[in-house]
Design a protein that fits this description.
Distance between the termini: 28 Å
Shape: globular
Radius of gyration: 17 Å
Order of helices and strands: HHHHHHH
Length: 187
């Protein structure tokens, strides 16, 4: 029983470490999806009891960033659109609240889709195919999508409590998304 508890704590500790790696790798901002994909690959290796560390993470990051930076750019463009939606809400224009609510829900859906695509990433995978399949899984598995949204809530609460906690919490979101993907495969 004690060994099992220690193993679970080890997985949690690895999630926190990977979260810091993801935060560092995503400092250029457009590399966030690639960093998430590399973090997910590392956690898949680690939970499968396969050796891997920083070097493998960096190799995965290089591979994922080749075309993944375009996905990162698209995510930031979507965030800019959400900012415009929220400006409409603040301006008090008619229908602004509805537009804001739809924008926030769309952004949550996009975020879950990108996270699911990142956790499904493998070297030489097409980001377009990954995103299409992830969108279908996001809509087809609402319970798993809610699990990912709850992981995002952990990051938000961590950042609210103490901003530096948001970095390690990124690993928790990746782990939650991996769990949602594994759960969907087993269903």
């Amino acid at each position: 029983m004690r060994a099992r508890a220690l193993a679970r704590f080890g997985v949690f500790a690895e999630c926190l470490l990977v979260g810091v790696w993801i935060a560092l790798a995503s400092l250029p901002l457009v590399t966030l999806p690639a960093a998430l994909a590399a973090g997910a690959a590392h956690l898949r290796r680690w939970t499968g009891e396969v050796e891997g560390g920083w070097r493998e993470f960096v190799a995965d990051l290089r591979s994922a960033v080749r075309r993944g930076w375009l996905v990162g750019l698209a995510v930031w463009a979507a965030l800019a659109l959400l900012g415009a939606d929220l400006a409409i809400v603040r301006a008090g224009l008619p229908g602004g609240r509805f537009v804001g609510a739809v924008g926030v829900l769309a952004m949550l859906g996009l975020t879950v889709t990108v996270l699911r695509a990142c956790t499904a990433w493998r070297p030489n995978a097409s980001w377009r195919a990954l995103l299409g399949a992830a969108a279908r899984r996001t809509l087809g598995d609402p319970a798993g999508s809610l699990l990912v949204v709850c992981g995002l809530g952990v990051i938000a609460a961590s950042a609210w409590f103490a901003a530096p906690l948001a970095a390690p919490a990124l690993g928790v979101v990746v782990a939650a998304t991996l769990a949602a993907e594994r759960r969907a495969r087993l269903s």
